[in-house]
Amino acid sequence: MDTGELTDRITARVKEKLEEMGIAVSDSDIEACLKGKEDDAPCASCCADGTCDQKNAADTGKKVLLILTEDHGTDCHALLENSELAGTYDVQCALLSDYKTEMDRVDTVVLFNLTCPNLSKLCSGMADTPYLQTALQAIMSGKRLLVSSDEIEYLRYEKSMPAPMWKKMSGELDFLKSCGLTVVPKDQLVLAAMNRTAESPASEESCETGGCEITIRRKVVTERDLIDAERAGASCIHLIRGCIITDLAKEAAARKGIRFCCD
Fold it and tell me: DSSP state, 71?
């Protein structure tokens, strides 16, 4: 078998595998990869003006919206290809990057594939897959998490699941909600992701001490909220009763000299 025939076979096989994963590429793209490229050669992300989105993504200063999924589906593509999200976030897929994520740059994580096992493991702190490890890291880092109700497996069995099991699963979901997870309808995922940036989560009020006071009306306050409060020049944060403050948020408040008050 000559080199040309071998290359053709490899190209066909690689293309077939990529198409199974929902990734469309041309034969020429695959051949270019097989032959190898020089460091200064254009890549698939290079534009006509010579700029490269892939190389400069980390230099845009945008926060990361991380899509966390276990398999290559089509639902997550709507977020990856959404121009509105791309204008605000550096939208990334954890699976495509082998779950190698710069968590410091992540602002919001959108969860897919929240199966019953994944739900229970997350609540118990068990992370035996890259997907769960990344999700757990996001929770422990105080990141904002979103999930579509369609992606929560146990909710599909409301009419058939025995009451004790339903109660157990609901308790686990409530636990994750208390850790910063927000459940939204599928058609509101983009809106929910944009709300954090498009609308301020807190209302500012004048403060007699020379700083300002802000009010956060969510049920969970995270480290991200403290960063936003510091940027707003806040010295005091008013919370609703029963609000949960994550440990990272408490540590950040102590470092920044910001007080918490319950309304």
Answer: S
The whole-angstrom distance between residue 187's C-alpha and the CA centroid of its chain comes to: 17
Task: Mention every residue, 6+ apart, whose C-beta is less than 8 A from residue 24.
Answer: 18
Q: Which pLDDT does position 35 carry in this prediction?
A: 55
Contacts for 256 with CB less than 8 Å, ≥ 6 apart: 226, 229, 230
Task: Specify whether 145 is located in the same domain as 120.
Answer: yes
**Per-residue model confidence as pLDDT tens digits over 26-74:** 666 655 655 544 444 444 444 444 444 444 445 457 889 999 998 877 6
Are 255 and 137 within one domain? no
Higher-pLDDT residue of 147 and 18 is: 147
Q: In angstroms, rounded to a whole number, what is the distance separating the alpha carbons of residues 10 and 26?
A: 13
Domain count, the chain: 3
**Do 125 and 247 fall into the same domain?**
no
| Same-domain status, 159 and 104 | yes
**pTM (two decimals):** 0.54
- Cα 140 from Cα 247, distance rounded (Å): 9
- pLDDT grade, residue 222 (50/70/90)? confident
The CA-atom distances, in angstroms, between 12 and each of 22, 44, 138, 226 are 15, 19, 38, 52
Question: Do 189 and 206 share a domain, yes or no?
Answer: no
d(CA 24, CA 16): 9
Same domain, yes or no: 62 and 178 = yes
Domain limits for position 18: 3-35
